[in-house]
Amino acid sequence: MQVSAKDAWKRILDEARRELPEQAVITWLAPAEPLSLADGCLALGVPDEFAVKWNEAKHGLILSRIAGQVLGQKTEVAFRVPEDRRQRPQIDFFVAPPPEAQTTPLRVAQSSLPLNERYTFDSFVIGKSNELGAAAAYAVAEAPGKTYNPLFIYGGTGLGKTHLMQAIAHAVIRRNPGTRVLYVGAEHFINEVIEGIHNRTMPDLRRRYRTDVDLFLVDDVHFLEGKEATQEEFFHTFNALYESQKQIVLTSDRPPKEMPGLEDRLVSRFGWGMVADVGLPDLEHRIAILRKKQEQDHLETTIPDEVLTFIAEHVYSNVRELEGSIIKLLLYASLRHREITVELAREALADRIRPSQSGAEERPKALPSIDKVQDVVARRWGVTPEGLRSKARIKSLTVPRQIAMYLAREVLNMQLVEIGQAFGGRDHSTVIHSVDKVQRQLAKDRGFRERVDSAKTELTTS
Question: Are 115 and 164 spatial neighbours (Cβ–Cβ below 8 Å)?
């Protein structure tokens, strides 16, 4: 007797629950719709290409194995987006949708900033550095207010935090057009609170933020540091929305526990749901991003693969810089009427390539090692190199550790992730915070600046 696709999927799903985490089944597999079972293939419908890629990568082999056991014959489990759900072709991370593309209008709440139509799950390029954040964001979009509330995404500039945040909004609004979305930057919220206090309109502000919202998105919450009155309002706004089971999504350049100017009660609440980071893309991820740009802009014959690899090997600060490199290269080649080659890319992107990478003749003759930086700072600040690399957060170690990270960036021009690894495996956002703090102190404290400059001189002249 022929088993229907629905019955086959039910059996496979029941067996999959024995091997896969329940949360993974609920978020990714249970919503899948059995479409057909024929020629040794069970086709399952999912909402978008993001879900297709994720399920194929994470669950495809396991489900196909289970299907063979359950159905008694070799059966492949495949995921696809049903034709009636394909509203428009998948767009690239960098490419705006065509003018004729029609999308469901977003119902944004009053005070909301506009959402970028490019920032969808379909256009997000997944790699090891953002896999956790992408999965958490998708889970939130599938069950807003129930899974990972709040969702706190942190990482450096240009790595996709805002993209993921807005992708949640697009996915939720597509499923439920009546959702009231409020997307603001933390600075915008601060300014509204200041105006509300000055104009005595706080009751209206509280109503707009606490009762007229279903999905609350706040970018760059680290700007709340040190703003006591704003933090008070944000605390009560957060509580009101959370208790009403409204979804809250926040982004920052660092995790909650590394924001010293944030009240403990907010730090605690920010960590209630899921705290996920997005990091620097590795080489394979950068190549994938560039190839997608190449494919979507039909640049296969314009930019050779070896040029994309060259760019990926030399430009790695963030995704935006990858985009900028392609744009600059195309313009450079056009102005000079030259074919795009690796040599042309080296010329065009000279300002983006570290001196130590652009050619042996340009490399510094004697660049100190990270061990040397740690030794010099440790000796001058009366600590040990082992202490700088340790997990300890006592003040006697924190300041020299931040200085050493700053000098590693300034003198050695090391990547953030490289610096983090050299100091006990710390996250890149910790390095960003440390370098930023030292730079601010250098600007206002002459004695501190002279001491750091003295250490820098020793490193560059010895």
Answer: no
Q: What Cα–Cα distance (Å) separates residue 315 from each residue in 189, 330, 347, 368, 411?
A: 34, 16, 14, 23, 19
d(CA 129, CA 133): 9
Side chain identity at residue 451, one-letter code: R
In angstroms, the CA 34 to CA 8 distance is 9
Do 140 and 249 lie in a common domain?
Answer: yes
List the CATH number of the domain containing 351. 1.10.8.60
Pick the last residue of a domain from 258, 277, 296. Answer: 277
**What is the chain's pLDDT, residue by residue, as a tens digit (462 residues)?**
578 989 999 999 999 888 887 767 877 888 889 999 988 899 998 877 777 888 888 888 899 999 999 888 899 999 988 876 554 333 333 333 333 333 444 445 545 678 888 888 888 888 888 888 888 899 899 889 988 899 999 988 788 899 999 999 999 998 888 889 999 999 889 988 998 888 888 898 888 898 889 999 999 998 898 888 899 999 999 999 999 999 999 999 888 888 878 899 999 999 898 898 888 888 888 888 888 777 767 777 788 888 888 888 888 767 778 878 888 888 888 888 888 999 998 888 887 775 544 444 443 345 688 989 999 999 999 999 999 988 888 888 999 999 999 999 888 877 777 788 889 888 777 888 888 889 888 888 888 998 999 898 888 876
Domain boundary among 277, 295, 330: 277
Contact between residue 246 and residue 179 where contact means Cβ atoms under 8 Å apart: no
pTM for the whole structure? 0.60
CA separation for the pair 320, 78 (Å, rounded): 33
CATH number of the structural domain spanning residue 446: 1.10.1750.10
Quick one: CA dihedral 266, 270, 271, 276, positive or negative?
A: negative
Domain that holds residue 178: 131-277
Closest CA to 222 of 188, 190, 179, 251: 251
Name the helix (H) or strand (E) containing 189: helix 186-199
Shortest CA distance to 173 belongs to which of 242, 107, 118?
A: 107
> Nearest 5°: CA angle at 139, between 22 and 273?
90
Q: What's the half-sphere exposure (Cβ side, CA atoms, 13 Å) at 195? A: 10
Distance of CA 198 to CAs 111, 232, 259, Å? 18, 16, 28
Quick check: 192 and 233 in contact, CB under 8 A?
Answer: no
Task: Tell me the two tokens of residue 189.
Answer: 């919220």
Edge-to-edge order in the sheet of strand 76-80:
33-38, 41-45, 76-80
